[in-house]
From TrEMBL:
Record organism: Crenobacter oryzisoli
Residue ranges annotated for the Acyl-CoA dehydrogenase/oxidase C-terminal domain, each copy included: 234-379
Protein name: Acyl-CoA dehydrogenase family protein
Cofactor: FAD
Keywords (A to Z) from UniProt: FAD, Flavoprotein, Oxidoreductase
Entry-linked SUPFAM superfamilies: Acyl-CoA dehydrogenase C-terminal domain-like, Acyl-CoA dehydrogenase NM domain-like
Keyword Oxidoreductase: yes
Domain Acyl-CoA oxidase/dehydrogenase middle residue range list: 126-220
Length: 394
């Protein structure tokens, strides 16, 4: 297997290197966290180039357009891709989240309609989960879906927020409440919705970094077709949780290689400006390097779940671990830059981006507090944290 994996790495390097040195050179190491709205048109073209080379959806079964790579081979692909400077994937939400969810839970019609566009890099997806009062507490979603008795389609009303790259996407999957009066995990529906339609408004959110990769998405009677419900009405929570399991899949190893690139930039900067000669900075750089190795070991340990998005209990610790490590790396970047980090010369440099964006790492996709509750309750089986009692009406 080791020779097979090394052969895969060489094959990818032989394909990737000349393209990132040539027509797609400006994309090298671009489009990662804090830089996701960069070069949108060019990165969509890159997705189609990947597809032409047979490098999209590499972990999908061959019958759905993938390469059917093993877990070990997928790890090698994602690590080598990031190491060589492969740009952040515009198709990540489609390839890594909704695609595997449709393979596991979708109808044959849904698979035939949506999977080819993801593989080809011609249709792009975003995630409609968080709302103003339902971020970490996802079960509190209030977006409503009402079925039209004549057509069987669903009319959607509500708001989603922090929707990554909605302005660049063609489709959105939406968790909504389809049973009036239902609460928590009950009465939810998982819908596939076209964004370019009446009743959908997308508003960019401008951030500290000056970028706007996140958006608010408003629904005012927008339509989800009857055949675009994944699972049955009422099964939305089950589908949504399975999708989050896929989110913690092997692509996380690629994320860590992006982190390694950032760490190397930080080391190079410290050597250049003298920060590496300061003992406390040297110690923190060493600690960051060791921490990244621990993240990789733990990520490899957790990747043995089933095909339905269910992961081992260890996976529940992963988001908490990487987000705190990366936030500390951002703070270290600011400390290494020193006063120079307070000056913007035209646009933010990469380490300034790392510092500003990493402030959000321990908030989005579940705050630290929520992550610790998940670890305690679902992984360790400890008693649930007391929840406030909501008085009944009347």
């Amino acid at each position: 297997m080791s020779e097979q994996i090394e052969s895969l790495r060489r094959e990818l390097a032989d394909w990737l290197t000349p393209r990132l040195a040539g027509p797609f050179g400006q994309l090298r190491h671009r489009g990662g966290p804090g830089d996701e709205d960069a070069l949108g048109v060019e990165r969509k073209e890159w997705e189609q180039e990947l597809a032409r080379g047979g490098w999209s959806c590499v972990g999908w079964p061959t019958e759905h357009g993938g390469r059917g790579l093993s877990i070990a081979e997928q790890v090698a692909f994602h690590e080598e891709y990031a190491r060589l400077g492969g740009p952040g994937r515009m198709g990540h939400i489609g390839e890594g989240l909704i695609g595997p969810t449709l393979i596991a839970f979708g109808t044959e019609e849904q698979k035939q309609r949506f999977l080819p566009g993801i593989v080809a890099g011609t249709e792009f997806w975003c995630q409609g989960y968080s709302e103003p009062n339902a971020g970490s507490d996802l079960a509190n979603v209030q977006t409503r879906a009402v079925r039209d008795p004549d057509t069987g389609h669903w009319r959607v009303h509500g708001q989603k927020v922090w929707t990554s790259l909605a302005h660049e996407s063609d489709w959105i999957f939406v968790l909504a409440r389809c049973e009036p009066g239902s609460q928590g995990h009950q009465g939810l529906i998982f819908l596939l919705m076209k964004l370019d339609q009446p009743g959908v408004e997308i508003r960019p959110i401008r951030q500290l970094t000056g970028t706007s990769e996140f958006n608010e998405v408003f629904f005012d009677g927008a339509v989800a077709e009857a055949g675009h419900v994944v699972g049955a009405p009422g099964d939305g929570w089950k589908i949504a949780m399975a999708l989050l399991g896929f989110e913690r899949g092997v692509s996380t190893l690629g994320q860590q290689m992006h982190f390694a690139h950032e760490l190397q930039l930080l080391v190079d900067t410290a050597r250049k400006n003298g920060g590496a000669k300061i003992p406390v900075i040297r110690a923190r750089l060493a600690e960051a390097a060791l921490g990244l190795k621990v993240l990789r070991a733990n990520a490899l340990r957790m990747m043995s779940g089933a095909d339905d998005g269910q992961l081992r209990r260890e996976a529940l610790s992963y988001k908490y671990a990487w987000s705190n490590w990366h936030r500390e790396l951002g703070q270290l970047a600011a400390d290494v830059l020193g006063p120079d980090g307070d000056v913007i010369d035209g646009e933010l440099n990469r380490l300034q981006q790392v510092y500003l964006f990493s402030r959000s790492d321990t908030i989005y996709a579940g705050t630290n507090e929520i992550q610790l509750n998940l670890i305690a309750e679902r992984a360790l089986g400890l008693p649930r944290e007391p929840r406030p009692v909501v008085p009944s009406k009347g």
